[in-house]
Amino acid sequence: MIASVRGTARHVGLDHVVVEVGGVGLLVHTTPATATECRTGDEVTLETTMVVREESLTLYGFRRTAEKALFEQVQTVSGVGPRLALAMLSVHAPDAVRAAIARADLAALTKVPGIGRKSAERLVLELKDKILVAGVDPGVGVTAPSVPEDAVSQQVRSALEGLGWSARQAGDAVERVTGAPGAPSEVSAVLRAALRELGR
């Protein structure tokens, strides 16, 4: 198990970072928010979880232990795998996910692509008591991290589709963001704004 990695960020994508450790480049899947905190050429430290499959070894990385802990916790629920867990943390901050589970806010949970009402109910049923025992304030508001279109728009749409939204949902969100007054132009800013739009 690789619990953390520290090294130079050789490449930073919208949803992944390549970290060079001891001359080896490790591809680490992240949330868009985590990726935007990394800079190419800088040393980064990521808390990681390795998911082992018969055909692959996949690393998921987080800047904070709270994100990693929640990523692992939600996967104890039947039907929730690493991709869906990462989508949850891409749409909502960790405290917001815990708050939504603690107060059975199904509307907030179903804003995550891939989570329907039954999946949301299962998350609440299986995790609510554990979340409350941890002392999470169920009154915490659910806020989505921020997410727009041309070369930038295409990259953002691809990232959103990779997180589970349909091509139409991704395209509509990017169009709404890029068409707004004072629209952002950088990929990371557009992605954050589109994620906000999709979280409404």
TrEMBL record:
GO CC term, one of those recorded: Holliday junction helicase complex
Lineage: Bacteria, Bacillati, Actinomycetota, Actinomycetes, Micrococcales
Family under the similarity heading: Belongs to the RuvA family.
Subunit details: Homotetramer. Forms an RuvA(8)-RuvB(12)-Holliday junction (HJ) complex. HJ DNA is sandwiched between 2 RuvA tetramers; dsDNA enters through RuvA and exits via RuvB. An RuvB hexamer assembles on each DNA strand where it exits the tetramer. Each RuvB hexamer is contacted by two RuvA subunits (via domain III) on 2 adjacent RuvB subunits; this complex drives branch migration. In the full resolvosome a probable DNA-RuvA(4)-RuvB(12)-RuvC(2) complex forms which resolves the HJ.
Signal peptide: none
Main location: cytoplasm
UniProt-annotated location(s): Cytoplasm
Domain Helix-hairpin-helix DNA-binding motif class: 72-91, 107-126
UniProt cross-references to InterPro entries, sorted A to Z: DNA_helicase_Holl-junc_RuvA_I, Hlx-hairpin-Hlx_DNA-bd_motif, NA-bd_OB-fold, RuvA, RuvA_2-like, RuvA_C, RuvA_C_sf
Coiled-coil residues: none
Taxonomy, superkingdom: Bacteria
Species this chain originates from: Ornithinimicrobium cerasi
Record function comment: The RuvA-RuvB-RuvC complex processes Holliday junction (HJ) DNA during genetic recombination and DNA repair, while the RuvA-RuvB complex plays an important role in the rescue of blocked DNA replication forks via replication fork reversal (RFR). RuvA specifically binds to HJ cruciform DNA, conferring on it an open structure. The RuvB hexamer acts as an ATP-dependent pump, pulling dsDNA into and through the RuvAB complex. HJ branch migration allows RuvC to scan DNA until it finds its consensus sequence, where it cleaves and resolves the cruciform DNA.
Domain notes from UniProt: Has three domains with a flexible linker between the domains II and III and assumes an 'L' shape. Domain III is highly mobile and contacts RuvB.
Gene: ruvA
Protein name per Swiss-Prot or TrEMBL: Holliday junction branch migration complex subunit RuvA
GO molecular function, one term: four-way junction DNA binding
